[in-house]
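Appendix B. Raw example, untouched.
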Amino acid sequence: MNISWTDKAVKQLDKIFEYIAADSTLYAYRTIEKIIDQVESVAHHPH
C-alpha cells in the first residue's frame, strides 16, 4: 500500500511545524517526523 499526501495534508503539516517551531525548531522537527512515521506505518499494517 502506498501513502499519498494531499496538498492539504502537506499544508497542515507545515502549519503544525510553524506553530511548534515558534517555541522550538527541534521539537517541531521531531513532531513532524513522528506524524509522518505514524502515517507511513499504515502502509505496513493497514488493518
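End of appendix B.
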